[in-house]
Amino acid sequence: MLYTKSTMATHRKMTGQIIGLLASGMMLGFVRDKHERRKLLEESDKIWMSLDRKQLYVILERLKLRGLIEFAKQGNKEKVRLTPRGKSQSLRHAFRTLKTSPKKKWDGKWRMVLFDIPEPKKKIRDALRRKLKELGFLEFQKSVFVFPYPAEDEINFVINFFDISEYVYYIEAPIRPDRDLRKHFGI
């Protein structure tokens, strides 16, 4: 079969969607908010219903050959699950695409991420700073970042991804004066 650029792009997109669907169960463990959990399930349902079944089976077979998924018999049914390598790839993808979602109305609290990561973990510390800036946090001080909207789930995901829970704190509190912060975030 001859693949065009368009066909390859569609194939890549479907592969990402399939791995994303398989990882959704894993992601539910990181999400505390019931509305976010419902949203994740609804998005998964929407993707599942949009997949072309013929292409689905072809992609599943390729993912199996690449060692990203495995088929397991449970009773008379065959289940598909991510291998450790597939989970790792899925987590890296989720980390790269992680975003915060600003709310329409600000509740008056500031979300602060404070950290004191030791020098031997300098690369992780620098990667955490980059990720916080990418998520929209403002660097308040060298190890203190501020954001106006709830982001606990996203921060927990980042902390778990880097395995740095003993060095990072997430705090919700008012800050006074906050005029410059409000101006920065357009509140």
Can you put this structure into words, describing what you see?
With 187 residues, the protein is α+β, with helices and mostly antiparallel strands. It folds into two domains: 5-97, Arc Repressor Mutant, subunit A; 110-185, Alpha-Beta Plaits. It is 53% helix and 17% strand. The protein is built from seven helices and six strands; from the N terminus they run H-H-H-E-E-H-E-H-E-E-H-E-H. Strands 4-5-3-6 form a four-stranded antiparallel beta sheet, with helices on both faces. A two-stranded antiparallel ribbon has the order 1-2. Helix 1 packs across helix 3 (53-65). The longest helix is centred in the first third of the chain and has 24 residues, at 5-28. The termini are far apart.
What topology does this entry show?
Layout: H1 5-28, H2 34-50, H3 53-65, E1 69-74, E2 77-82, H4 84-97, E3 110-115, H5 122-134, E4 138-141, E5 144-147, H6 152-162, E6 168-173, H7 179-185
Antiparallel strand pairs: 1-2, 3-5, 3-6, 4-5
Question: Brief description of this entry?
Answer:
With 187 residues, the protein is of the alpha+beta class.
